[in-house]
Amino acid sequence: MKSHHRTLALALAATAATGLTVFAVAQGLPKLPQKATYKVGFAQTESNNPWRIAQTKSMQDEAKKLGYQLVYTDAAGSAAKQVADVDSMIAQRVDAIFLAPREEKPLAAAVKKARAAGIPVILLDRNVDPSLAKPGQDYVTFIGSDFIQEGQRVGQWLAKNMKGQARVIQLLGTTGSSPANDRRKGFEDAVKGNANIKILASQTGDFARDKGRQVMETLLQAHPDVNVVYAHNDEMAIGAIAALEAAGKKPGKDVMVMSIDGGKEIVQLVVDGKVNYVVECNPRFGPKAFATLKDYAAGKKIPAKIINPDRDYTAQNAKAGLASAY
Question: Domain named Periplasmic binding protein: which ranges (predicted)?
Fold first, then answer.
């Protein structure tokens, strides 16, 4: 008992300067009282593409519908800024934080800092380093897609639908982000051992359209025999299409194009025959995110991962799915 009191006293002394409670740390995840309204933080990673814009709108719309105050920040593609954004939310004493982590490692520390401040965190669409922060212990849950499965679906579709040998250029997402890590792993695991599929090059396009175009232009010069492009998101795929067309190649015909995300623009390109296969990664997180927060406040058991169901788009179904794409 004495050692328990001594530990508590040391913990209290360590946090006295900041005024933060240690009871959340001592007892596990911070509790969230049931209230009619909440002040909730949403730390977005960036807003330079349609997927992020759709995700933010969904979160803002749901908060407005519920009458909650949403403290929104945009890290503009900087992990350091996003860490500072979380610090600011802690200082503002929000009731809870929704976080879409820019990178796995630096944001794991931010998650633990929020927990130490008595603020529960729910991760959206990207994860943090599992060796540094754990669900049910450091944060409530991860809500999003199964990124490994997304990559596997692309690899499996390619193996089934390619004609002859596949010579692949893989445009990777942001280095150090969970979707980039997992979409690569899923795809490479799915095609491993298939003698007819060869990955010529894998290079980051940072999930950005223009960077995807630039990288594709460079890789095309090094690998003019490429006949498959697998992009980790729509933006890079659209950039790659521009590079292919500039080089006199026909995307969708001379070179198969495959992507993950499923925004309206890429689904239209499937209809047009320039993209062959897209796995959806639905950005409309608002309803599920806030429902999970309410369940947590009500004391319900929350699973460590909540996986969104995602469809896919092919030449056969893209026209019918276009209207409901984000």
Answer: 40-301
